[in-house]
User: Fold this.
Amino acid sequence: MNYSLLTSTNPSEVKSDCLVIPIFANKKLSHAATQLDAATDGMISKFLSISDFSGNNDQSHLLYADSNTQCSRILLIGCGEENKFDQKIACSVTKQASKEIAKTSAKHATLFLLDTLAERIICEQSIRQSLLTFADSVYRFDKYKSEKKKSPKIEHLCMAFTTEPPCDVATMLKQGVAIAKGMHLSRDLANQPGNICTPSYIAETAQSLGRQYDSVTIEVLEEHDMEALGMGSFLSVSKGSAQPGKMVILQYSGADASSRPIGLVGKGVTFDTGGISLKPGANMDEMKFDMCGAASVMGAFNACVEMQLPINVVAVLATAENMPSSQATKPGDIVTSMSGKTIEVLNTDAEGRLVLCDALTYIGRYDPAVVIDTATLTGACIVALGHHICAVLSNDDGLAKDLIEAGNDINDKTWQLPMDDDYSKQLKSAFADLGNIGSGGAGTITAACFLGKFTEAYQWAHIDIAGTAWKGKDATGRPVPLLSQYLINKAYS
Ligand code: BES
Ligand code: MN
Ligand code: ZN
Assistant:
């Protein structure tokens, strides 16, 4: 997809396969509709006068344009009461428009939707949000379908205004495009099946990012490197698989070297069978998504690089496959993590925290200002928050607040769960410093408490995306928007 901007434009002069023109409740013409109506000898008002189209929120109608315009289609879209039209409605209308456009063979669409949003902040966020909504809804992963007939034909989206908008449209477009690109990368990676998207595939994808941008360097730690570093916890997961585990480090320098980097860590379990503590068969295919933490970190990293944010970022992807085999870790095995802490692996299906804890120790070497990890860590997170909101847990309430705010800014929401000491006590082991599972409920919190034992040296937050990283059988690209917005806020505050 390509994106562009047009300001102070009369829709009748726009060359496009499809113009999207808002109509408000009670058949009220928007500014764009009025201009188009004037140029077409009342085509729109004539249509409205004889039709049932009232301009309510759920309505749309496709007209084929006449010779007084430069476009081939006009999609009228109902936007409801004009004075109630806000960012949220703009997004739902954008989504509807994208679905209608996808039914046509239009390759180029021009959206005159946001004229009415006169306030600066609303206008700015709506441009980005509409762009993300559109990109999201025309995304398809059909790489392995011989017939791609369900794929939208759209290639170019133009965000158009009849007036000069009161905000920095160009910056918002640039940010929107960068975040959309990051989400796309993240979803493509996550939707790949486990036999293609292995730890090596993730490492190669990172390497190709490194080749694309001068500001990016990539380093890959192999299993023998991790052995030398004492990452016994990570290796206890990867050792059951024929696929070698990798620790992938991506660095972006957008500020001078003295500026402490923001640390991002992602769980990249490319397939989670549960290991010897084998998962049940139903929907086990979805455990190919257990690398969505790593995918979203890579996506947000890519967005940051594209936006050329004036910050430094270090990202670590802990990627391995969790398999049962004669080499695999067994319940009761005790391993030593890079931090020196010993861990009794009571359940090999609690593998995410085992790969993450060594990554969290390792990232300390970069003296990060803050570290945020994201992971499809616990089924319990779905019990707590369902599929709409990500859980955030932190050793620093200020950081948690920043993340919650960033999520609200970009409609990628989080909810904070507590991390009191009482929960940490649930991680006791009879034989080692700690067990890898907690007894007594609150699985999302005890998982975070486990990670918290390895993050005492810095400000840290953990985002559990078990309920939000995919929907049905499709990756969502979350929390790329949240992480990207957090980085934007950090860069410009
Ligand atoms: N990857 C899973 C968590 C998960 C499950 C995410 C379902 C999304 C949907 C994780 O590795 C896991 O298996 N966690 C266990 C932990 C338990 C053994 C303490 C879980 O949640 O059941
Ligand atoms: Mn597991
Ligand atoms: Zn897992």
Summary: The domain at 2-167 is CATH 3.40.220.10 (Leucine Aminopeptidase, subunit E; domain 1).
